[in-house]
Every structure is written in structure tokens, then in C-alpha cells.
Design goal:
The complex is a heterodimer of chains A (about 190) and B (about 200). With about 190 residues, chain A is mainly α. The radius of gyration of chain A is 18 Å and the shape is elongated. The two termini of chain A are about 35 Å apart. Chain B is mainly alpha-helical. In chain B, a hairpin with a 2-residue loop joins strand 1 and strand 2. In chain B, helix 3 packs across helix 9, helix 4 packs antiparallel against helix 5 and helix 4 crosses helix 9. Chain B is globular and about 55 Å long. Chain B starts with 5 loop residues before the first strand and ends with a strand. The chains are: A mainly alpha (about 190), B mainly alpha (about 200). At the A-B interface, helix 2, helix 3, helix 8 and helix 9 of A face helix 3, helix 8 and helix 9 of B.
Chain lengths: ~190, ~200
């Protein structure tokens, strides 16, 4: 836990809450948002959102979830970013997967949205569910959940998976908005 | 709610929602699950949606923290406009349940339904003022093509008078409904009031 003090662009002092740590905030890091810039200072006026966004990512991608290995969850996040698309977050999740020693051909296939080539039937099932929910959420149906159950996932695991896919849909849009705010700040 | 709106499968009526898989039984819930349900929503303990998400209580806690901070925080973009943007996102994603809830909230806050009727009829041209139209356009663009959002998209909002703090609230509102719609569409279905 880190506390810090920053100043917004009007020179007002803002004390950041105890959870925020610049080195561990994914979006600030990958977008290169720095205190004193319009995008950073605007973003951090909603400190609770910054904290809950990072805490959600940490729970969904970092923390242990019984029966859903971290590498599998990162592949879900990678596919979601590849399809949306979000180049910054895609690169981030590719790097994390390499760091976990996930075989490079699997990372490469998922990163290109090519899930038909994968051998692992369960992973394919999970990624095909991800594909529908990212690209055409209205097509999600009860049968898709029953298929996941038949692949051996429990309801708590399906809950975590649905939250993960939905969270990444959120994260890519926050990222896109902040990136645009950064570009706007640089030219104004 | 005074006037019932039913346009193209969307409505401002109060709908119920039914889960497609087993939800947490409140009588067997852990103290942690109860606590998180209570901090998530006033009616969470009798809602299939929250009882489904309570299978992963810590994840629900952070989702609710983000959701409540985005939709209810004071200052920034007026809450009626946050509701308008979430109704647009829900209309684009086809989430009838979310659209009904946020149509009602818009009406409660703005004391009118005109913009919501337009959103249900044809979101791409909706908005009763230049400012509303810009908010609607940005909501659609960030929902459909987040990779296309640019400095010009921000400039278009500045041109109709939004401050940077308001633009941040708009980005967050649109993004949190990418999240909310996908849960609502994917874990169960709306139930319409019996005729």
C-alpha cells in the first residue's frame, strides 16, 4: 500500500487514496499517463474508480481462482483485446503470458483470434464463449452456459469467467478513452 | 413512471430477471456474501442477478465499487446524462433489461422521456440538444469501435461544452455498461410483467 500526493492541472493538491500505486496501475503504466498531464489528473479525480478497476483486474487475472488457472484467464483477456481491438492491452497480456511460459504458438494463435487451431477442447470452449460475448453479446444464451458446465466448469467458475470477459470489455474502453484524452491533452 | 414506452422491443416498464444457472441460496450464504450483497444494491439479497454474482463475492465487491462510484458519485457529468449514455449503450448492445432500468432512472432525474424514446427508436440520431447528440454519438462510438476514439472525439464533446471531468465520467459510464450488459445478457434473461 502506497500513499502519494499529486497536483492536478489547476495546481490543486490531491491526495491519492491508500490503494493506488503508480507502478502497479496497469492503465497508467501502459498508456504512459504521468502526474501533471491532463489525462492523468482528470482520471485521478475519480480515485475510487481507479482503485476498483485495478482491484478487479488483480482479482480476475492475478489472484488464484479454483479451477481456472491464471494462464487460461490471461488467454481469455488476450482474445478479448485482440477482437475488440485494443493494441496496448493486447501487448500487455501477450507479455504476461510469455512470462508464464505459455507455449508461444498458443499465444500467437489467440493473439490473432484464431481459436479453431487450438488442441485443448476445454480451452477452445472457453475461448469460443469469450468470442461470442465480446463480438456479439446479444447472441449469448442459456445453452452456452450449459455447454461450459458440460465441459466441467462449476457455476462459481462460470461466474468468474463471465465477470472476466465483461471486465475486459470495460477495461479496453476505459483505456481507449484515456488514450484519446492523452492525445487531446498533448495537442491543446 | 407515468407513461409506458414500448418501442422496438425496448421498454421503460419494470422488468424482472431470471438466472440461467443456480444462484446462491441466501439462507446458506456466508457472512462475507451477505455483507457484499448489502453494499452492492438495496435489493441485492432478493435479486437473481446479484445472487448469481455472489458466487464470487470479492469480484462482485470490486464490480459494485466501480459501478457505484461511476454512476452515483457527486460532481462531474450530471447523473441524468450518465443514465442517458448507459441507455444508449444498452440499446446498442441489445440489453433490454438494462435499458429499462436506466430509462426509468433518466426519467426520474430529467423529468422527461423524449430522449429515451429517441434512443429506443433510432439511437444513431437520438438527442434533443447538440450536447445530448454529442453524448449519444460518443457513447455509440466507444461501444462499437473503441479503437477509433481519438482526440477529435474528445474535441467534439468539448465543442458542446463538456469539461474534461465530465468527459471522464462519460467514458466510465459507457465502459461500465460494456461490463454490465455482458453480465445481464449472458447469465440470464429478462422477465416481462404478465399481461
Amino acid at each position: 500500500m502506497v500513499t502519494g500526493t499529486t497536483f492536478n492541472h489547476e495546481g490543486r493538491c490531491m491526495t491519492t487514496p491508500p490503494f493506488y500505486a503508480a507502478q502497479t496501475d496497469t492503465l497508467d503504466r501502459i498508456l504512459g499517463l504521468k502526474p501533471g498531464s491532463l489525462a492523468f489528473d482528470t482520471r485521478h479525480q475519480r480515485a475510487k474508480v481507479v482503485d476498483a478497476t485495478q482491484a478487479s483486474e488483480d482479482l480476475l487475472l492475478g489472484a488464484p481462482i479454483e479451477g481456472l488457472p491464471s494462464s487460461e484467464r490471461l488467454l481469455v483477456a488476450l482474445l478479448a483485446c485482440a477482437l475488440t481491438p485494443s493494441s496496448e492491452l493486447r501487448e500487455e497480456y501477450v507479455q504476461r503470458l510469455h512470462a508464464m511460459n505459455v507455449p508461444a504458438p498458443i499465444i500467437e494463435s489467440v493473439s490473432q483470434g484464431k481459436i479453431d487451431q487450438l488442441q485443448d477442447a476445454r480451452l477452445k470452449q472457453i475461448l469460443s464463449f469469450t468470442h461470442t460475448l465480446i463480438t456479439d453479446p446479444i447472441k449469448a444464451d442459456k445453452q452456452a452456459l450449459l455447454t461450459l458446465k458440460a465441459s466441467g466448469l462449476t457455476t462459481p467458475q462460470i461466474t468468474a469467467l463471465a465477470q472476466l470477459i465483461a471486465f475486459v470489455s470495460y477495461q479496453v474502453r476505459v483505456s481507449a478513452g484515456l488514450k484519446a484524452l492523452k492525445a487531446y491533452g498533448a495537442q491543446s | 413512471m407515468n407513461e409506458v414506452i414500448r418501442i422496438k422491443g425496448f421498454t421503460n416498464e419494470t422488468l424482472d430477471w431470471k438466472a440461467w444457472l443456480d444462484v446462491v441460496n441466501i439462507d446458506g450464504a456466508t457472512p462475507e456474501q451477505i455483507e457484499i450483497l448489502e453494499e452492492s444494491h438495496p435489493k441485492a439479497k432478493v435479486s437473481d442477478y446479484y445472487l448469481f454474482l455472489a458466487h464470487q463475492p470479492e469480484i462482485l465487491r470490486q464490480r459494485s465499487a466501480a459501478f457505484n462510484a461511476i454512476m452515483y458519485a457527486p460532481g462531474g457529468m450530471p447523473r441524468a446524462e450518465r443514465e442517458l449514455s448507459t441507455a444508449v449503450v444498452s440499446r446498442i448492445n441489445g440489453c433490454v433489461y438494462c435499458a429499462s432500468v436506466h430509462a426509468q432512472r433518466f426519467e426520474q432525474l430529467a423529468k422527461r422521456t423524449d430522449a429515451i424514446k429517441q434512443v429506443f427508436e433510432e439511437p444513431r440520431t437520438a438527442g434533443t440538444t447538440a450536447r445530448e447528440k454529442a453524448i449519444v454519438q460518443f457513447s455509440i462510438e466507444l461501444t462499437e469501435r473503441p479503437d477509433n476514439i481519438s482526440a477529435q472525439s474528445i474535441q467534439a464533446l468539448k465543442d458542446v461544452g463538456l469539461s474534461e471531468a465530465e468527459i471522464l465520467d462519460l467514458i466510465h459510464s459507457v465502459a461500465i455498461f460494456a461490463w454490465a450488459n455482458r453480465l445481464m445478457l449472458n447469465l440470464g434473461e429478462p422477465v416481462f410483467p404478465s399481461a
